[in-house]
Amino acid sequence: KQEVTQIPAALSVPEGENLVLNCSFTDSAIYNLQWFRQDPGKGLTSLLLIQSSQREQTSGRLNASLDKSSGRSTLYIAASQPGDSATYLCAVKEGSGAGSYQLTFGKGTKLSVIP
Amino acid sequence: NAGVTQTPKFQVLKTGQSMTLQCAQDMNHNSMYWYRQDPGMGLRLIYYSASEGTTDKGEVPNGYNVSRLNKREFSLRLESAAPSQTSVYFCASRTGTSGSEQYFGPGTRLTVT
Predict the structure, then answer these.
(1) Cβ-based contacts under 8 A for chains A and B
(2) pLDDT (mean) for B51-75
């Protein structure tokens, strides 16, 4: 069974710092990986989607990388801002088969950016 | 363009009561999903509908039923609520084509006393 781990569970950084959030998964046979942001009491907002054939995706100050063979993904946030404070979740979609429509989520990293 | 909408936003039930959570999407997506989110557990899939007319169990289906009413709407029913079903429920949708991303609704916060 696929397991997704995000370390650390919480992270606090001063404004302006560059930071990296980590995501690891146990079964490398994934179809894609998606990073989400969740604000307190809100739903999930999709940030980046990386297909298994891709190495990275970029959107503004965000860059997500994928190393499928080692079961790792990172989300890089440049020049962090207080508005980046949220919980960041990664989720993997596995390949074909009965579970192919299911996303397996990590438990998230709660990021606090201090002004 | 509203995306994925869910009703109600909040609900308190007593043990044994029933209710239906509603979800609708206006993105013409084929696939729809119901998740629950619990502290320390992450999001877990309850049921999904790969396309109109089909539904399948996810990781934690016990105590729930679903209906894919049409392409837009996917409802989740609790027939006899239990305190263990206290959670935040999220509906999501995706186009259904290979590799497409999931879009989430704002959630329903359910408390069962």
Answers:
(1) 52
(2) 94
